[in-house]
Amino acid sequence: MAKVRPEKVCHSVDEASELIKHLANPNRLAVICYLIEAPRSVAELEEDLGISQPTLSQQITQLREAGIITGQRQARSVTYRIRDQRIMPLVHALRMAFAELNDLRMEQRRAAAQTSAEVLPDMFD
């Protein structure tokens, strides 16, 4: 005879598992990490994260359908923000556990500055 788990526990486990599944995709996790910092337009997400527009649209659709993010249309642009606040402590815990989940914009700026510093001396020689 199979053990019967309390319904309340099963529901919570299933809901938590679904939320974690959405974090399991690297592109969705990157979008969520970035939106935690501030609301962003699709163009900003595409440029800053380096995710192609078709892939980004697919991931945004999945996050929106899951209720994790929400979008607000402003003229021809849509700005997305975190809707499900339960995602916040999960992402913060991931940031604590994995140093690689730092602000991507800061990493890109450092890389661009390093590239500029390497290119500039050659231009003046």
Automatic annotation (TrEMBL):
This protein's UniProt keywords: DNA-binding, Transcription, Transcription regulation
GO molecular function, one term: DNA-binding transcription factor activity
Record's keyword annotation contains Transcription regulation: yes
Sequence ranges assigned to domain HTH arsR-type in this UniProt record: 8-102
UniProt cross-references to SMART domains, sorted A to Z: HTH_ARSR
Pfam families for this protein: HTH_5
Protein name: Transcriptional regulator
Species annotation: Haematobacter genomosp. 1
Native organism taxonomy: Bacteria, Pseudomonadati, Pseudomonadota, Alphaproteobacteria, Rhodobacterales
